[in-house]
Amino acid sequence: MVKAVRGFKDILPGEAEKWCYLERLACKYFRAYSFQEIRIPILEKTELFARSIGQATDIVEKEMYTFLDRNKESLTLRPEATAGICRALIEHGLYAKAKVIKLYTIGPMFRHERPQKGRLRQFHQIDAEVFGSHSAGTDAEIILLAWEILTAGGAKGLRMEINSLGCPQCRPRFRDALQEFLEQSKAKLCEDCQRRTQKNPLRALDCKNENCQKLYEKAPLIEDFWCSACREHFLEVQQYLKQWNLVYEINPRLVRGLDYYVRTTFEIKAPQLGAQDTVAAGGRYDGLVKALGGPDIPGIGFAIGIERFLLVAQLPDLTPRLDLYAIPLGKRAYMTLLPVVQNLRQEGLMVELDHEGRSLKALLKQANKLKAKAALILGDNELDQGIVLLRNMETGRQKELPLEPQKELLKRLQQELGAPCDS
Length: 423
Ligand SMILES: [Zn+2]
Ligand SMILES: [Zn+2]
Description:
Elements: H1 16-32, E1 36-37, E2 43-45, H2 46-52, H3 58-63, E3 65-68, E4 74-77, H4 82-91, E5 101-110, E6 122-131, H5 136-152, E7 159-164, H6 171-184, H7 191-199, H8 201-204, H9 210-216, H10 228-243, E8 249-250, E9 262-269, E10 278-284, H11 288-291, E11 299-305, H12 306-312, E12 324-328, H13 331-346, E13 351-353, H14 360-369, E14 374-378, H15 380-385, E15 387-392, E16 398-402, H16 406-417
Parallel strand pairs: 1-5, 7-8, 12-13, 12-14
Antiparallel strand pairs: 2-4, 3-4, 5-6, 6-11, 7-9, 9-10, 10-11, 14-15, 15-16
Helix pairs in contact: 1-5, 5-10
The structure holds zinc ion (2 copies).
């Protein structure tokens, strides 16, 4: 038997309802914040990610799902959505349509990591990007949006961490100071951090190695290097967050190693998840669109990991509940019920119809199992009398309804069944 590829997972019925619920919830918030949906391909030229995410990162060096296609072109399954959205923004000139463009997308991302401890090669993100605004108000709004989507999903115990990464004017001095610090401690660093010291010192601060983390407690802090404009911008962001009533912590060690990331950066963590506790992460990337060959316009965005969101979400009971189970006893009854069922389904009611000609007893048992509100029973006796039986599956009480005129019957059924269960 052929099994699913390692690191790829099926989302089965029962589970899929939860995904649908969270995705719809996110869409509701994106709409409320006046975002528009964009759908981009899952496959891009490898060059796009090499240029956007950066060569000297773990993602590009060892985690991308890259392959040569039949034309020997190097392609990559997207490891994140930002680069593809920036490409689309440039390719279609979307930036010319409005001063500020707000986009979101929801879908699968891919990383070719060793599949371990629930780390999947296909994982899913809710992604938001805003282009064209330098304002601190946009930073605060994007942070709030990520927070509100998560809390609307019932996520408990979340922590918001924010920081500012400075800008091309002030960050290089921090980078130099950090590099010097790393050089001095070189012998004690892990292999990865030794490598990062030269290529990408900021990435070292992300190291999961405990020894490294202990050392970095004494590392220089970016806040001591901010220029006055960056300091002012960050204070303004915080001022708005307070006005939105959002509780946050400043984490001075929250950094990103990529050059185009500037100023505000944030992560939403759920400490109960342990080592992999980041549920959402985002930040400002003012240099990225230009680096990809577009105009010099700023951007900021975030991604929520849906798998982790599901781990902390508290969802209502999403078991689908059938409105009506139609039970025809015999071919004549079956033919009579077909248009009735069709009409009720068009009205949005969830209706199941038996095609197998099973016995009344078996079908009532099935209706119970599916938690049907009611069963519609039609046999030869009822047909001869011109009626149909509507059985309340909770009380077992039955009502006789006239079969004709059909318009009247449909009206009665809708009254009896009320609004669709899943409306
Ligand atoms: Zn600065
Ligand atoms: Zn390290």
